[in-house]
Amino acid sequence: MALLSGKTKEALLGPLNKNNPVIVQVLGICSALAVTSKLEPAIVMAIAVTVVTALGNVVISLLRKTIPNRIRIIVQLVVVAALVTIVSEVLKAYAYDVNKQLSVYVGLIVTNCILMGRLEAFALGNGPWASFLDGIGNGIGYGWILVAVGFVREIFGSGTLFGHKIIPQSFYDMGYENNGFMMLAPMALILVAIIIWIHRTKNKELQEEA
Amino acid sequence: MANREKSGYTIIYASVMVIIVALGLALTHMGLKPQQVRNENIDKMQQILRSLNIDAEANVAEQQYNELIKNAYLIADGQKVEGTEGITPEDPAFSGEEAAKGVPVFEAEIDGSKKYILSMNGAGLWGAIWGYLAIESDGSTVYGAEFGNAGETPGLGAEIVEPEFRNQFIGKELIKNNEFKSIAVVKPGQSVSDRDYVDGISGGTITSKGVDNMLFNSVKKYDSFLMNLHSDNQ
């Protein structure tokens, strides 16, 4: 079997565009609002979610023939919670500053609907390799939205990227001001909505009948 | 394979899984613990150094801390508590243990003059705020200030950590007419007459108010210590 047959390719690439977890399935919105006021935490969050989704998918996929049906959600939760705890511990040890910025949101990856959604909908019914790709694809699909929103919010909200000044001082001297609204959660929602708007305009088949 | 829907199988499955996960997490935690504690200590050293207006990178913070901080101890009723001296992370002034005995003071020496660093704790809008205040040897003039927060609103209340806010405290006086007054944080444009003040954060009113309260309540615990310094230097 080729490494990327039609179905596995769809598992990997679908979530980036037509099956995107954030802008099409509208999952994982809460964290997209919470951690995107700066670019760096948005990227770390994207990586963390990608790792957890991919590994969680693999573990559940490997166990799928043994998991008792009645407690499958609990099994999924335990696996996800364990992985998230490990990610959080590793961040605390090796990326302390970023961990401080993400604060509670690392722990809240557990409640990210994308994770449970993928485990339940994909990993329980597919092999480990396809599940791994599905996890990577959904993680990146979630991640690129976060990075796009974080980019816009940091540059217009703080005039910086990765904490470095981008908007030149001469702009401020001429009366330009950082937009404080960018720093608040509602602006993230508006930005996500704008992305959805553009996306649906380009993909007419996603539009719902009025 | 055993019948997956039997209760016995389910119970055994759940038990085994939970034990394996618990073991794995315990091992991870133990393995990473030393590095995590080190990070926390370095973070605290960086905060203490920032109150001395020194922005130390994480890799040099420990060295600079050891060079500049000459002594640390707890004080109660303006007096040093016996047996609490020491600047290492294990000593009570740094570790924050034995807080019942007194409040911590760090002594630093910069260009030959002594600074006293006080620790502050308070509440902002969403959670805890804290800080360090470096005082000149006259017990009144602020040499530098540092603030931290657990989860204030980014761009609003969380701006208290920025130099634009912190640096306003430099040169302000805690003691007026031989009386401990602290420093007020007021809405930009307003003023108070009986004590020194700095501008709060626009849009971060409750956090600013929290800093104002913290500056009074936490520093109040040091007032006899500061008054002693003050009268010694008159």
Description:
The complex is a heterodimer of chains A (210) and B (234). Chain A has a two-stranded antiparallel ribbon. The longest helix of chain A has 30 residues, at 128-157. Chain A is mostly helical and 210 residues long. In chain A, helix 4 (72-94) crosses helix 5 and helix 7 crosses helix 9 (185-202). Chain A is built from 9 helices and 2 strands, in the order αααααααββαα. The model of chain B has no long low-confidence stretch (mean pLDDT 89). Helix content of chain B is 38%, strand content 24%. In chain B, strand 1 (69-76) and strand 2 (79-80) form a beta hairpin. Chain B has helices at 7-51, 58-68, 92-95, 163-166, 205-220, 223-232, and strands spanning 69-76, 79-80, 103-110, 113-123, 128-136, 142-149, 175-176, 179-180, 184-186, 197-199. Chain B has a 6-stranded antiparallel beta sheet with strand order 2-1-3-4-5-6. In chain B, strands 7-8 form a two-stranded antiparallel sheet. Classes of the chains: A mainly alpha (210), B alpha+beta (234). Chain A binds chain B through residues 37-38, 65-71, 74-75, 78-79, 82, 85-86, 89-90, 92-94, 96-97, 100, 103-104, 157-158, 180, 182-184, and chain B through 1, 4-5, 9-10, 13-14, 17-18, 21, 24-25, 28-29, 32, 35-36, 39-40, 42-43, 58, 150-151, 153-156, 203.
